[in-house]
Specification:
Length: about 325
């Protein structure tokens, strides 16, 4: 598709067992977007649903010219489905939302207007959530506070899927695990300007929630990954090397103390636990140091093999030379 023919806005929606929600979702999306006068596409991704989602989506694609149906071979998870939607979309502006009708498509124009005020990512904030269950609200509040504190991106609602992006922001990110929740943090690492707006939230009408407490632990693991990427992606030796030097240094100090006790004080050190501590500290320190060197090589391979620079340019402006 040529640049002149490409729609301005791409709406990306991952779907899993949402056959009942799908027709009203498409109807609401069209009702919200068609009056805006923007060209748009609806990129709906079926993430290996086991209900009738795929057949309903195929039928809707035959009657809705703006709809792009992406059917994945099996269930890969929300992050992978979202990445597939990003890859299939062509709009300069991208909006994501859930397919369960809890996000309101009527809020999409609000996000797009805020995006056009100079921001690279606009995140929705479900300030009046309709999830009454304790196992949803409490873990969500804890996770949002923890993520905001660790990543430095102060958002009230990381879990809200209703977000708007400039294409260049998502083009710079590779998604794995549960990293879709951390898109604002990943975008912040790339230098994006981020804000949030209050959006509506509705109770689930069909089916049941796919979220559970087990998801919280997966999110915590990915939070560690994002934290490392933010602080040490281009300098892993700074964390592993420092730990290695600390271990080697502590081991050598203990070894010197034991050597003094053995050679000068004539004490028996063979049965002292401190001797084992010294050996373990030195060995662990050497391993961490070597691990840091390997991580440095991996980092260089990662950037150089892909031609991926360690910086991002927001704009380049050149003065016009006089004639």
């Amino acid at each position: 598709m040529s640049e002149s023919q490409a729609p301005e806005v791409s709406i990306v929606v991952p779907l899993f067992n949402e056959a009942e929600s799908l027709p009203p979702l498409v109807e609401q999306l069209l009702a919200s977007l068609r009056p805006q006068g923007r060209s748009f596409e609806l990129v709906l991704v079926d993430d290996g649903s086991v209900d009738a989602t795929a057949s309903v989506l195929t039928r809707l694609a035959e009657t809705t010219p703006e709809l792009v149906a992406v059917l994945l071979r099996r269930n890969y998870g929300q992050t992978a489905a979202m990445a597939a939607g990003f890859d299939a979309s062509v709009g300069a502006l991208i909006v994501t939302l859930d397919g369960d009708l809890q996000n309101d498509p009527a809020d999409i124009p609000l996000l797009l207007k805020r995006l056009e005020k100079g921001f690279d990512l606009v995140s929705g904030w479900r300030h009046e959530r309709q999830d009454g269950a304790l196992n949803r609200l409490l873990p969500s509040k804890i996770a949002n506070g923890l993520i905001a504190r660790v990543t430095g991106v102060k958002l009230h609602d990381y879990g809200c899927s209703l977000k708007a992006y400039r294409r260049e922001v998502v083009a710079d990110m590779n998604l794995y695990g549960e990293l879709h929740r951390f898109l604002p943090a990943l975008a912040f690492i790339e230098g994006a300007r981020i804000t949030e707006v209050k959006v509506q939230h509705h109770a689930r009408r069909f089916g049941r929630s796919k979220y559970g407490l087990d998801r919280t632990f997966r999110v915590l693991m990915d939070l560690l990954t994002v934290t490392f990427m933010k602080r040490f992606l281009t300098r892993p030796m700074h964390v592993f090397g420092l730990g290695g030097l600390a271990g080697i240094g502590a081991g050598l100090l203990i070894a010197l103390h034991l050597s003094y006790a053995k050679l000068v004080l004539q004490e028996n050190i063979g049965n002292r636990p401190l001797l084992m501590v010294a050996v373990l500290a030195i060995v662990t320190g050497v391993q961490l140091f070597c691990f840091g060197l390997l991580a440095e090589l991996q980092m260089r391979t990662y950037h150089e093999s892909q031609g991926r620079p360690i910086y991002r340019v927001r704009a380049t402006m050149r003065g016009r030379l006089g004639t």
